[in-house]
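Q: I'm building a small set of examples for a reading group on sequence design. Run inverse folding on the following structure and report the sequence directly after it, with nothing in between.
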């Protein structure tokens, strides 16, 4: 079958037309024909051979990459009775151990033994993928394939806002890439009184403004940053926003974050800073009484049910607008080039 592989720690990925099809091994396995799959930020790290990622993946190489997808069930193991061939599905690609303290207390998204398909084991940039039935979720038949292709990333955005109550609150979204644009829209759908969004890319800020952000700020200039700090602090009863989502990973965004959040506010971190940051814990966290949430993955399946609910509640239009490019799997290089040039939002492959 066709597949995109990481075969070594060099920069780039490779296409093959004759990878062996994955087989049902466990009685609880489900084999899925991939209809559409999407590039995630993590896949760009894999492409670039970011040292942490490359070292993690080395033992699994050659490994089929990709972890965001939807497809159709073609075969099920002998113990599977809730899913049948023909079902339209997606899957959580974090495979959990089921035994650790987090798995056994309903917090499997921080399973200490997580195996991620597409990183530690074969993923979905391929014609077929095999996933345990406990990770499979059936989808509404009318959910567009190009949107279902990236439920994994939609789940990151939904999970980011799940630990906080944004009803009637002011929310700042730092970084208006796909997750930030979804975050702005989800915050509005969830009842936020005002959403401020920042980025350094004017076209992304335009899209954010069409999908949930009430005001946008280009923080690529000192004037833009000053305008954002001023807007954050303009409500005299708060002198800052109630909730900040940091999605950019950019060092200057952490300065913005601690300046714009109010005393007693909440901070949600999903962005990945590439270098260690210097933070004044005394001034910026302890004396501000902040609550900080680190976000990883999705809660299976709380996050998944919430995202399907939010799609019904008005998120779909935003999700469709984020799909900018579609390529056949063999043209994977074109898709990655688009993302590496910083041009596309969600890039979809159709195996
Ligand atoms: Zn992802
Ligand atoms: Zn576990």
């Amino acid at each position: 079958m066709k597949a995109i592989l990481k075969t070594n720690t060099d920069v780039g990925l490779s296409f093959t037309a004759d990878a062996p099809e994955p087989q049902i091994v466990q009685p609880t396995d489900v084999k899925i024909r991939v209809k559409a799959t999407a590039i995630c930020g993590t896949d760009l790290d894999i492409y670039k051979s970011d040292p942490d990622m490359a070292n993690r993946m080395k033992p699994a190489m050659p490994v089929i990459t990709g972890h965001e997808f939807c497809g159709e069930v073609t075969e099920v193991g002998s113990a599977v009775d809730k899913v049948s061939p023909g079902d339209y599905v997606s899957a959580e690609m974090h495979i959990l151990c089921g035994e650790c303290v987090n798995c056994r207390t309903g917090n499997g998204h921080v399973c200490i033994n997580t195996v991620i398909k597409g990183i530690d084991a074969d993923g979905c940039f391929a014609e077929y993928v095999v996933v345990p039935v406990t990770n499979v979720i059936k989808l509404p038949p009318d959910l567009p394939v190009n949107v279902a292709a990236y439920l994994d990333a939609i789940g990151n955005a939904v999970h980011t806002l799940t630990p906080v109550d944004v009803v009637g609150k002011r929310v700042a979204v730092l970084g208006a890439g796909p997750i930030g644009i979804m975050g702005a829209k989800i915050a509005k759908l969830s009842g936020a009184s005002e959403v401020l969004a920042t980025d350094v890319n004017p076209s992304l800020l335009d899209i954010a403004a069409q999908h949930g952000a009430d005001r946008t700020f280009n923080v690529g200039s000192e004037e833009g940053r000053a305008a954002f700090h001023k807007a954050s602090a303009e409500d005299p009863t708060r002198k800052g926003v109630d909730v900040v989502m940091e999605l950019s990973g950019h060092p200057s965004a952490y300065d913005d974050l601690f300046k714009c959040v109010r005393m007693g506010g909440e901070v949600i971190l999903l962005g990945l800073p590439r270098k260690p940051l210097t933070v004044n814990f005394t001034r910026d966290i302890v004396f501000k009484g902040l609550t900080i949430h680190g976000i990883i993955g999705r809660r299976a399946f709380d996050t998944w049910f919430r995202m399907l609910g939010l799609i019904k509640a008005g998120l779909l239009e935003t999700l469709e607008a984020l799909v900018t490019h579609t390529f056949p799997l063999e043209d994977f290089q074109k898709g990655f080039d688009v993302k590496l040039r910083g041009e596309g939002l969600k890039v979809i492959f159709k195996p």
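The first strand starts at residue 3 and ends at 6.
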